[in-house]
Please model this.
Amino acid sequence: MASTRDLRRRIKSVTGTSKITKAMQMVASSKMRRAQQAALAGRPYAQLMVSILADLGGDLTDLTHPLLEKREVRKTAVLVITSDKGLCGGLNANLLREVAKLDVASTVFICAGRKGAQFVGRTKRNLAADFSYSDSPTFAEARTISKFIQDMFTQGEVDEVRVMYNRFVNTISQVPESLRLLPLSNVDRVKAGVGNDGEPLAHNSVEQDFLFEPDASHVLGAMLPHFVNFAIYQLLLDAKASEQSARMVAMKNATDNAKQIIKDLTLDYNKMRQANITNELLEITTAQMALG
Model:
């Protein structure tokens, strides 16, 4: 049975831990708000781009472009977007559990985030590249990843490119999701993000009359690489918003659990201290009675 000294030490230790988790919760909460705002701010632009591309592609059924080329899928590249750090609950574990189901022989992995790269290396899968991105992802970081992916696809190293990431729904809900990025066979169905209700962005059904200069085929050819760049950028923002939200919730739960442990330990300490005082009083009373 633990002594009062042991209980005091445990209370002090758990109190120190709760202060750390509380501080991490506050930091994650601040970062979470910025990450969520950034992720939501890019979605109207992504939706407009999807709409324009759909209008362009609808009239160009015979358009040929390297990013639109369909091939028999023999080799697939998968971009896995995870966090660099842990302490965010089951966010990475849930996503990597889905990654583990992919066929090892026909899949090559591109990782954005240290946790994904560590998993791929630990499970001895084929890692083609490992990228890092900041707490506030930039378009330049997304463009670097996008260029590597587009080069792999256009040079015929892979026949399909997919992305696996945690889709941000709200503060307490992040969903592991897999989507096809290349080839861009149906530009009106490619997701460069999701709406506030969690549904994928869709082509605007309102008919609009666009005029393109020099012509629609040139505009579409120039926009497709930029569309892929922005799609990856939006997915990085979603993944970062998911990470910060999951970390804030995990740290809040850890802080609440620590407070409950402190409460239980304090109760045990007070019970033990009261029992010791009672025993001392009984010993004094017994001694006085023995002396007469």
